[in-house]
């Protein structure tokens, strides 16, 4: 379901994250933002299915034909179907003596090359196939001019090599894809049988099966005929749990069993889906930026392309997904109040007031009259404020933002998809100091003083900073290990299915 106005917030210790639209009406606090216009996700010009091209301008040399044979023939290493860009038939025609066959082969080879260039640069899925929540859209790309110039100037191979995303995260996934396809070719792994929790000291056939399962992904695991869950196996389980984003306690509980029983084919699909999403990013990312991995609920800050701060986050629960998007943080609201959407007020807050009269007053809510004799609820800034002490604003059609929260317990959990779409921050004050590091006005002392005053203040950033909300369910850590998350929104599966249907 489309959600152009998302809701987020934590009411006292129990309410979920809800959206904020603060107005001045009869409030003693100054307004901190105007109403958000209802928008649609970014519009990107559709990619043409056929690019008009003068074929006489494209005359391949023998070396260029061989280069196309290699690159197009290896397109599957980028996660594409084996047959998607196969050049064999086109090259066969192009090398024929018959002029008509040669012309047909040339046209096919040009068409395949342009289709491959678009797919590996900006993705296989057309914009028309994007879900509303997939607000991270690739820029329109016409490869024809670059292609013609590359052929004519004798640098076709060099141009082909510039097409894939120029990021280590993409290249390492490409390597990981080969690894998991090799595992699949060898038979993958068998699912572990259900049963009691397994931990150190356990014995039996399930322990033997566990050892074999771990060894399929972890070559350091020695398969031993002795069915004993020993210290070495505990450490192997912990390594696997870290790769899956689970509590690394060395115990094969329900969550660990579920992750281990995910088929290798599903893991391959996850890698393919994540490689596709890498293609939606621009060719160059800002050197200073904030990135949120929604699926892993982790926020990272980069300064001059170097990570300077990492923290846990809380992101949207399934059904209230945090969208993928890119934007620019333009300001920070200190001591933000919260205007309660009518739907939340009627479904969640007013019933609490009726069940326990005085609930509104106890939680710092006020009733504000509106035009036409209606009313709305606003929660005042303060210790009970749903948005905590700070909110980071950036323009987006979904009404989401980053913010503090008075409810801290969730940050201690390995399962942190619990909001209505906004991103809660484990270390909001550290994040303020990071983004304000070059502003002499907003020193840490000034920030603390303003927060302590309780006054609502909007601080504009001296220079806007890019923010990316991304959905990475497969990524490679510096030690070369492919990490997986369990696709909480089902977006991996849906993306792979949509591409397969093309």
Quick structural gist:
The protein has 502 residues and is α+β, with helices and mostly antiparallel strands.
Number of helices: 15
Q: Report the structural category.
A: alpha+beta
Global geometry: globular
Order of helices and strands: HHHHHHHHHHEEEEEHHEEEEEEHHEEEH
Largest sheet at a glance? 8 strands, mixed, barrel
Oligomer: single chain
SS strand fraction: 15-25%
Helix content: 25-40%
Radius of gyration: 27 Å
Q: Please state the average pLDDT score.
A: 89
Query: What is the strand arrangement across the widest sheet?
Result: 1-2-3-11-9-8-4-12
Protein name: Murein L,D-transpeptidase
Domain L,D-TPase catalytic: 288-448
GO molecular function, one term: transferase activity
Family: Belongs to the YkuD family.
Describe the secondary structure blueprint for this structure.
Elements: H1 62-73, H2 88-94, H3 99-122, H4 144-152, H5 156-161, H6 168-185, H7 205-217, H8 231-244, H9 254-260, H10 264-278, E1 289-293, E2 298-303, E3 306-316, E4 325-334, E5 338-340, H11 342-355, H12 359-362, E6 365-369, E7 375-379, E8 390-394, E9 402-403, E10 417-419, E11 423-425, H13 428-435, H14 444-453, E12 457-470, E13 474-476, E14 482-484, H15 491-500
Parallel strand pairs: 1-12, 3-10, 9-11
Antiparallel strand pairs: 1-2, 2-3, 3-11, 4-8, 4-12, 5-7, 6-7, 8-9, 13-14
Protein name: Murein L,D-transpeptidase
InterPro entries: LD-transpeptidase_YkuD-like, LD_TPept_cat_dom, LD_TPept_scaffold_dom, Peptidoglycan-bd-like, PGBD-like_sf, PGBDSf, Transpep_catalytic_dom
Keywords: Cell shape, Cell wall biogenesis/degradation, Peptidoglycan synthesis, Signal, Transferase
């Amino acid at each position: 379901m489309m959600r152009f106005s998302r809701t987020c917030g934590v009411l006292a210790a129990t309410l979920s994250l809800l959206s904020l639209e603060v107005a001045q009406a009869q409030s003693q606090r100054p307004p901190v933002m105007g109403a958000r216009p209802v928008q649609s996700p970014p519009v990107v010009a559709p990619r043409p299915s056929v690019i008009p091209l003068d074929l006489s301008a494209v005359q391949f040399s023998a070396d260029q034909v061989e280069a196309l044979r290699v690159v197009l023939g290896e397109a599957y290493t980028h996660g594409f179907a084996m047959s998607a860009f196969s050049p064999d038939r086109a090259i066969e025609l192009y090398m024929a003596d018959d002029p008509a066959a040669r012309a047909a082969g040339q046209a096919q080879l040009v068409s395949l090359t342009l289709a491959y260039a678009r797919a590996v640069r900006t993705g296989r899925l057309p914009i028309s196939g994007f879900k509303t929540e997939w607000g991270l859209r690739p820029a329109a790309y016409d490869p024809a001019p670059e292609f013609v110039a590359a052929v004519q100037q004798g640098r076709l191979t060099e141009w082909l090599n510039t097409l894939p995303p120029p990021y280590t995260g993409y290249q390492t996934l490409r390597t990981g894809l080969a690894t998991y396809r090799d595992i699949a070719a060898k038979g993958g792994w068998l699912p572990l049988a259900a049963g009691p929790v397994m931990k150190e000291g356990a014995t039996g056939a399930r322990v033997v099966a566990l050892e074999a399962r771990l060894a399929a992904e972890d070559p350091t695991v020695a398969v031993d005929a002795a069915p004993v869950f020993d210290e070495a196996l505990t450490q192997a389980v912990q390594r696997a749990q870290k790769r899956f984003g689970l509590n690394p306690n060395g115990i094969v509980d329900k969550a660990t069993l579920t992750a281990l029983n995910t088929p290798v084919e599903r893991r391959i699909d996850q890698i393919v889906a994540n490689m596709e999403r890498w293609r939606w990013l621009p060719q160059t990312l800002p050197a200073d930026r904030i990135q949120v991995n929604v699926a892993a609920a982790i926020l990272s800050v980069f300064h001059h392309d170097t990570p300077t701060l990492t923290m846990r986050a809380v992101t949207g629960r399934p059904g209230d997904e945090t969208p993928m998007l890119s934007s620019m943080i333009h300001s920070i609201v200190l001591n933000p109040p919260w205007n309660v959407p009518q739907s939340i007020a009627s479904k969640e807050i007013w019933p609490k007031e009726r069940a326990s009269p005085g609930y509104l007053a106890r939680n710092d809510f006020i009733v504000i009259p509106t035009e036409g004799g209606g009313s709305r609820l606003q929660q005042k800034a303060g210790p009970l404020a749903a948005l905590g002490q700070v909110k980071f604003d950036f323009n987006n059609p979904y009404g989401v933002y980053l913010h503090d929260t008075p409810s801290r317990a969730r940050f201690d959990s390995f399962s942190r998809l619990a909001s209505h779409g906004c991103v809660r921050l484990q270390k909001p004050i550290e994040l303020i100091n990071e983004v304000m590091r070059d502003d002499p006005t907003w020193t840490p002392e000034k920030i603390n003083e303003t927060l302590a005053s309780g006054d609502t203040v909007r601080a504009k950033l001296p220079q806007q900073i890019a923010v990316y909300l991304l959905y990475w369910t497969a990524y490679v850590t510096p030690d070369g290990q492919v990490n997986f998350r369990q696709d909480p929104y089902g977006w991996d599966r849906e993306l792979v299915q949509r591409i397969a249907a093309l």
